[in-house]
């Protein structure tokens, strides 16, 4: 760390400290909410905030953009190399398609838009921007990312996380009644025309069984989709909240201390 | 003011804000949990109302076939009356268990009436009521889970102090009737 860097870090610490301190309370609240909400069975879940657990089943025929694997939901992010080997995320994208969640008692439809997804990365690749593999270059092209030419001047990192069929997930979100869709062509017609297949039949069954839709609520914005169990999730949030509760004030004091002593010694603006 | 004094003041401020914030987070979550108990209790009522609406239809369908089973219908109407009068969690639990047993008896007696068993309306009602019974059982369990979380927190420090300040007392669990814990005795009448 050079002498020129110290004021920058002190200012960053001064700005980040209170934000971190504030965030610790938000994490504590989320942790309490998870702990206080018992897991409901899908068949009997009530409308409003619910916590459910089950296995994922896709609703749409989705393919993850980087790995090409069939999945129920995907999320990708692209980062470029910033100062001091740190990565700076420049693009995020998610499939946003709803998927089914099934437990022993029923099926719910999850709309993942706006969810805080805690899914492990299954693909992570770093490459030089000028020699990007076709797959990533094509993705940048398809997404019409105007800054992509600039990003490609340095190293880039591509990450992808997926929810695949049969994976067990935990969902905390707001349940609301499902909208009844009008079927354009019914089963018999599909059978007669030979367009009905196993997948269509299975989707129809799941659709009929769907008890409710789980999404981000208007009054309760907490919406979590996690691969971790409830216990792991609360433990992680608790540790993070304690860390932020200590680190927030510590960073603020460090940043403030630097500037106060610098001003006291008359070193500022000289 | 010396920088050390400013830093000391800021540190104390952080400590005060931290403690107040922590206390508020406990306070808010206890209030939310208390409301959650009331909500889960009310959510059982929603299903009970649905079951209540199905019962007259069931009685009407069955009465035509089971004219000699007056006692079974009397028990059902007695249980419905008790449910309407119930005030406390314990009274409600007792009345609901009575109603569940009365329904069980109707379905058991219906086995002896092949015409009734073949009636589509009866089959639909039976399936609907069984479905509602399962959902009610789930929601009772959910209610008990919420009450358990609340009661546990009321016994833990520092939540106990905040709950004491709020005058919160432990909530009542929904207990299953003693009769429902016993094994069901099934007797088959052997023909010939």
Describe the model:
Chain A has 6 helices and 13 strands. Chain A is α+β, with helices and mostly antiparallel strands and 270 residues long. Chain A folds into 2 domains: 1-31 and 230-270; 37-227, no CATH class. In chain A, the strands form 3 sheets. In chain A, strands 1-6-7-12-11 form a 5-stranded mixed beta barrel. In chain A, strands 5-4-10-9 form a 4-stranded antiparallel beta sheet, with no helix packed on it. A two-stranded antiparallel ribbon of chain A has the order 2-3. In chain A, a hairpin with a 5-residue loop joins strand 4 and strand 5. In chain A, helix 1 runs antiparallel to helix 6. Chain A is flat. By secondary structure, chain B is an all-alpha fold. Chain B has a single domain (3-178), classed as de novo design (two linked rop proteins) (Up-down Bundle), CATH 1.20.1440. Chain B is 78% helix and 0% strand. In chain B, helix 1 (3-63) packs antiparallel against helix 5 and helix 2 runs antiparallel to helix 3. The radius of gyration of chain B is 26 Å and the shape is rod-shaped. Chain B starts with a helix and ends in an 11-residue tail after the last helix. Residues 186-192 of chain B have low confidence and may be disordered. The chains are: A alpha+beta (270), B mainly alpha (192). The A-B interface holds A 21, 25, 28-29, 32-33, 35-41, 43-44, 46, 48, 105, 245, 248-249, 252-253, 256-257, 260-261, 263-264 and B 2-3, 6-7, 10-11, 14-15, 17-18, 21-22, 25, 28-29, 32-33, 36, 39-40, 43, 46-47, 134-136, 138-139, 142, 145-146, 149.
């Amino acid at each position: 760390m050079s002498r020129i860097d110290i004021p920058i870090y002190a200012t960053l610490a001064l700005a980040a400290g209170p934000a971190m301190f504030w965030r610790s309370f938000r994490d504590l609240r989320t942790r309490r909410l998870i702990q206080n909400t018992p897991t409901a069975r899908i068949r009997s879940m009530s409308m409003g905030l619910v916590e459910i657990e089950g296995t994922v089943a896709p609703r749409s025929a989705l393919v993850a953009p980087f790995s090409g694997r069939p999945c129920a939901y995907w999320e990708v992010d692209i980062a470029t190399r910033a100062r001091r080997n740190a990565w700076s995320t420049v693009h995020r994208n998610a499939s946003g398609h709803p998927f089914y969640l099934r437990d022993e008692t029923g099926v719910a439809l999850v709309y993942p838009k706006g969810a805080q997804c805690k899914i492990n990365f299954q693909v992570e690749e770093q490459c030089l921007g000028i020699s990007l593999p076709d797959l990533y270059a094509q993705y940048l092209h398809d997404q019409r990312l105007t800054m992509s030419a600039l990003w490609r001047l340095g190293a880039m990192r591509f990450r992808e996380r997926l929810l695949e069929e049969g994976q067990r997930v935990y969902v905390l979100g707001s349940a609301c009644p499902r909208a009844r869709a009008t079927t354009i062509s019914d089963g018999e017609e599909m059978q007669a025309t030979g367009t009905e297949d196993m997948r269509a039949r299975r989707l129809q069954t799941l659709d009929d069984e769907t008890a409710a839709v789980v999404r981000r609520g208007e009054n309760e914005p907490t919406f979590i989709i996690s691969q971790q169990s409830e216990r792991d999730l609360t433990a992680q949030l608790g540790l993070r909240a304690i860390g932020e509760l200590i680190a927030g004030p510590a960073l603020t004091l460090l940043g403030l201390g630097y500037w106060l002593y610098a001003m006291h010694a008359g070193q500022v603006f000289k | 003011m010396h920088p050390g004094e400013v830093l000391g003041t800021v540190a104390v401020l952080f400590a005060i804000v931290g403690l107040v914030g922590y206390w508020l987070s406990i306070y808010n979550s206890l209030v939310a949990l208390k409301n959650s108990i009331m909500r889960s209790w009310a959510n059982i009522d929603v299903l009970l109302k649905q079951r209540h609406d199905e019962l007259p239809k069931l009685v009407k369908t069955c009465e035509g076939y089971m004219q000699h089973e007056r006692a079974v219908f009397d028990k059902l109407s007695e249980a419905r009356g008790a449910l309407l009068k119930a005030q406390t969690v314990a009274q409600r639990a007792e009345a609901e268990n009575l109603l569940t047993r009365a329904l069980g008896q109707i379905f058991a007696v219906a086995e002896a009436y092949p015409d009734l068993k073949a009636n589509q309306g009866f089959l639909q009602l039976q399936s609907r009521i069984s479905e509602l019974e399962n959902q009610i059982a789930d929601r009772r369990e959910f209610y008990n889970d919420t009450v358990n979380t609340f009661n546990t927190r009321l016994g833990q420090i520092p939540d106990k102090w905040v709950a004491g300040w709020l005058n919160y007392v432990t909530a009542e669990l929904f207990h299953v009737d003693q009769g429902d814990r016993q094994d069901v005795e099934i007797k088959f009448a052997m023909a010939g």
